[in-house]
Amino acid sequence: MQLEKIQQEIRNQKLDGWLFFDHHLRDPLAYRVLGFTPPRTPTRRWYYLIPASGEPHGLVHRIESGMLDALAGDKTKYSSWSEQVAGLRKITAGSRRVAMQYSPNCAIPYVSMVDAGTVELVRSVGLEVASSAELIQAFEAKWSREQLESHLEAGRRVDAARAAAFEFIREHVRNGSPVGEYDVKMFVRERFAASGLVTDHGPIVGANANASNPHYEPMEGASAPIRKGDLVLLDMWAKLDRPDAVYYDITWTHFLGENPPEKMRSVFEVVTGARDAAVRRVETAMAQGEALCGYQVDDAARGVIASRGFGEYFTHRTGHSIGVEVHGNGANMDNLETHDERRISPWTCFSIEPGIYLPEFGVRSEVNMFVGEGEARVTGAVQRELALF
After folding, report:
1. Disulfide: which of 108, 277, 336, 376 matches 103 by Cβ 3.0-4.6 Å?
2. How far apart are CA 320 and CA 327, in angstroms?
């Protein structure tokens, strides 16, 4: 457990402590932040308070009294519900405002691990409960230098697979040989495996109307053909096949021909303009030392799309945190699905992926942004042209 670092972050957030709680492995974040694996599945509730300074304190049930032995600090034991409440008062004595894996109105579902009843119980002993969202970001979303390098290398390999996949489509269309969405999906998966990449699922390969479904994925026996004059969206994500590697996640949309219809061209220009506006917002803020929140980046992209009359067709957030899981636990670029007020922190990465989804076709353009110390950058290739031929 990184006790000194945890306590420094607690002080940075002007909190009295961070109260962890679990029952039946409900909160994987707690175990990752605290850096321990329970000796068995906890069938009784445990609590663990890390104060802003001083020694931590635990509260464990007598029949599972060794549950927190791997962690520093004294442990109070309880059996009855009244002892539990008294023990909670004891271990939090001197604290007024503590963080828990809680988010008001479940605004940040990634950190809403503690049930409402437990929050009520903690409040009943006189504590104010704050969200641990910013604390979680400090321990879950920040990359090491090695992770950044793994992302950049994954990006080179994924970008190569993306280019090869579109060439695969183009050659089939030019030669008049049949090709479908599922064929492209399997081509990409084979390229990933050959390149030392792994992914949890996907990729998304959508032609025409299927490109309007942001989470569409073709399956064997449920796949549309791809022909000349079609629009194809390819969303792909992967990471190096090694411990602690982080994801690279992109989306490109191409028209299979030389002259896209004016409507497709116009929508592509709006989407890429929104993408670039969000990128500039982040770059400018980081260069000027401005504190920037996820919702503000979403506003930058969404404003461009709304101003061109397509606001109702942009149906998801602008971007998500990226980490060892493709959807990480840092700030999301979101003022639609949630109002994400988490600050964008140095050594974190996220996607910028605005889209417009019309009934007949959809366009999305996705890049990844890494934020360092006083700077931000797109980490891979950026799509500028719609036509593939």
Report:
1. 108
2. 6
- List, for residues 42-90, the tens digit of each pLDDT value: 999 999 999 999 999 999 999 999 999 999 999 999 999 999 999 999 9
Query: What single string gives the DSSP state of each residue in 148-196?
Result: HHHHHHHHHHHHHHHHHHHHHHHHHHHHT---BHHHHHHHHHHHHHHTT
CA distance 87 to 62: 12
Q: Where are the domains of the chain?
A: 3-140, 145-378
3 state DSSP class of 238: strand
Q: Is the pLDDT of residue 388 over 90?
A: no
Please give the Cα distance from 95 to 93 (Å, whole number): 6
Report the distance separating Cα 114 and Cα 108, nearest Å: 12
Q: Is 67 helix (H, G, I), strand (E, B) or coil?
A: coil
- What burial class does residue 261 get, using C-beta atoms within 10 Å of its C-beta: 0-12 exposed, 13-18 middle, 19+ buried? middle
Q: Which CATH number fits domain 145-378: 3.40.50.2300, 3.90.230.10, 3.20.20.80, 3.40.50.720?
A: 3.90.230.10
Beta-bridge partner residues of 354: none
Amino acid, res. 241: D
pTM: predicted TM-score of the whole model, two decimal places: 0.91
Between CA 235 and CA 202 the distance in angstroms is 8
Instruction: Report the alpha-carbon distance of residue 143 to residue 326 in Å, rounded.
Output: 14
E strand intervals along the chain: 17-22, 46-51, 57-61, 74-78, 97-100, 128-131, 197-198, 204-207, 231-240, 248-255, 321-322, 348-352, 355-357, 362-364, 367-371, 376-378
Q: Which residues of 272-299 are buried (b: 16+ CB within 10 A; e: fewer)?
A: bbbbbbbbebbbebbeeeeebbbbbbbb
Q: May I ask the CATH class of domain 3-140?
A: alpha beta
pLDDT tens per residue across span 165-190? 999 999 999 999 999 999 999 999 99
